[in-house]
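Question:
Write out your own:
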Amino acid sequence: MPARSRRETQKAEIRAELIEAAHALVKEDGYEGLTIRKLAARVGYAPMSVYSYFPDKHSILFALAQDAFAVLARRMERDAPADPLEALTKLMREYAAFGFDNPNEYRTVFMTRDPAGFADMDLQGIHKDNPALLLLLQRVQACVDAGVLAGDVFAIATLIWTFGHGTVSLLISFPNYPFGDRDAYVERSIQVVLAGIRSAPVPPLDDPRRC
């Protein structure tokens, strides 16, 4: 292997190691527990070595979010049913399960005040860095193509995400609220939002930034 290829491979491996360690820190201590110094100590590197890969905490969180979206997308895509509505329903269940299995990461990526800088992105940038959203759009498009949902695909997907995020964030943030059985509540929420969307065609969102 040429020397340049070896260096690039080594850099990619170290970067992946740092992202894995960042995931572990967030899982254990949340957003506040992730610092350059703690990350360096976790992998046994000097802090200045970490800065050569990630200049600040913001860049680490962006990489962590991208990785989390990829993991979520793989999870949502796994063993998808052939029926488009069942595949969409399973995707929604997997989204919730990911949040419950990784509550600190979910808070960091979806509930902390824009730590990764996604709020300033346009739609094209969000699509590029969020394969989970692209998969949701594909599942909704399949349902529209099959005639089980009607309306604007982007608007439908956004409504589903809005409803799903609200359900997951409330269940994570208020564990003592009397929701009843968690999984049963998620299932009820899914059925409610799908019933609402199926009741009438969903018009496009009134947002000129999509043009």
Notes: Residues 76 and 95 are 7 Å apart (CA to CA).
